[in-house]
Amino acid sequence: MQPVDFSHGLYGRLRQQAGNDWQDYVAHPFIQQLALGTLPERAFRRYLTQDYLFLIHFARAYALLVSKLRTLPEMRAATASLNAIVAELPLHLAYCESWGMSEAQMMSEAEAAETMNYTRYVLDIGHSGDALDLLVALLPCVAGYAEIGLRLLHDPGTLLEGSPYASWIRNYGDADYLNGVRAALDLLESVARQRGAESRFSELSEIFVTATRLESAFWQMGLNAATPT
């Protein structure tokens, strides 16, 4: 299987420009503890619940993206991503049920401030900007999770045998998921050429960095749940 090149094209430049913010996201203490199998289950359960609520709004953002694209191939690519997210919800639910959490329980949970801040930011970018703005806001999640998953899978220090988090780690190195990430990166490059990304790089970088910081805050939200207030 061909590896994903995270350093390529506009995405690679945005990722590099994000600097320490990007490293804070992909190597967050939540991820480090998850890799070692030491993450408190309370933190992971909080993350899982909020991630389920997050995915619902993420699907809305991709539906908005479809409406902002101009060509049928691009619309097909974005629709495939939307369908993958919608299809992921039952899988996510089944995984959560293995942790003893039902859909009714998760849907009754209030959205955390971090969930609202992140998802509404992405949707606001989508409503106020164009398809390129929205794609740049979406990619830290889409491609970032792939980078995290592959890092953990290739790190000899990652505990997989006997870890309650092993299936979560493997999911983001899965071939189908990585194929979806490649398609999203290709779509970004296509839209970037059409929408004058070079002249807009500074503004696009600001969107990317903000979404990256909101990703880190989402990890921290989960980690904070391990420390009762």
TrEMBL record:
Catalytic class of the enzyme: hydrolase
Enzymatic reactions: thiamine + H2O = 5-(2-hydroxyethyl)-4-methylthiazole + 4-amino-5-hydroxymethyl-2-methylpyrimidine + H(+); 4-amino-5-aminomethyl-2-methylpyrimidine + H2O = 4-amino-5-hydroxymethyl-2-methylpyrimidine + NH4(+)
Ranges for domain Thiaminase-2/PQQC: 17-224
GO molecular function: thiaminase activity
Pfam families xrefs: TENA_THI-4
Gene3D superfamilies: Heme oxygenase-like (1.20.910.10)
Source superkingdom: Bacteria
Pathway assignment: Cofactor biosynthesis; thiamine diphosphate biosynthesis
One GO BP: thiamine diphosphate biosynthetic process
E.C. no: 3.5.99.2
SUPFAM superfamilies noted in UniProt: Heme oxygenase-like
Record function comment: Catalyzes an amino-pyrimidine hydrolysis reaction at the C5' of the pyrimidine moiety of thiamine compounds, a reaction that is part of a thiamine salvage pathway.
Protein name, UniProt field: Aminopyrimidine aminohydrolase
